[in-house]
Amino acid sequence: MASGQDKNVIDVPDAIDAKLAPSSKLIPKKPWIMRFGKWIQPKTNRWIARSSRVPDIPVFDAAQFAWTKTLEDNWEIIRAEAAAALEDLESVPPLATISPDHRRIAPAGRWRSFFLYGYRYRDEANCRQCPRTAELVSRVPGLNSAFFSILVPGTHLPAHTGVSKAFLTCHLGLQVPRERDKCRMRVVDRWFEWEEGKCLVFDDVFNHEVRNDSEETRIVLLVQFKRPVGPVGWIVGNLFLEGVRRSRFVQDARYGVERWRQKLAESRRAA
Predict the structure, then answer these.
(1) What backbone phi and psi angles, to 5 degrees, belong to 16?
(2) Which of 30, 39, 134, 147 has the fewest Cβ atoms within 10 angstroms?
(3) What pTM value is reported for the model?
């Protein structure tokens, strides 16, 4: 179990139909080391961008990363495992509940995440539920995180930017609402729609937001992987990511997952 302290936990509603909007006021005060990380973040991003072996652009052609074809070729297997694991969405933890630092953008109860890997920490219980998916993502070069990202109807993730240019993000569409124009993502000044069985690769350090204004749930397999870089970018990026991995940002989320499991188990025993 990850370490964590209950005094750092601010309870937010868990229900899928919760109405509590994202707010920075719901985030516990950051320790000095996280404030230092926030200060140095733009500088590390500049060094990584200069060392990058791929363009410093918002959105990429997925074919530029050969492993995305393997995910696309196996997307129906991945979707089947996701459907089984996510059959009871109320049992899947909301990101705002397990990760306090996401409450700035994550509406309470409405953005849910089923983690296989998080900052290279493997979730053994979830991987056992989705063995083929776990095996496929484990082959991704420079894998950082992999999880099923679920947006229920009426969810809006407001404009935000990611943690580091040290990694890029891939979305594999698994369940896309039929009204695709009502469920989409803006990256800088362009809107993108997901397609089932297709990968969308982007740099989440660029300003982006997500909307699901449809009446159906959207599910993607979200994969974060290390950006191909030269020696300077590799050193800077790895040092920064290792700091993030050991920080409260990640450790609170790990603790939050275990706390959620304990709470779920207790409620089921009491039923």
Answers:
(1) -60, -30
(2) 39
(3) 0.86
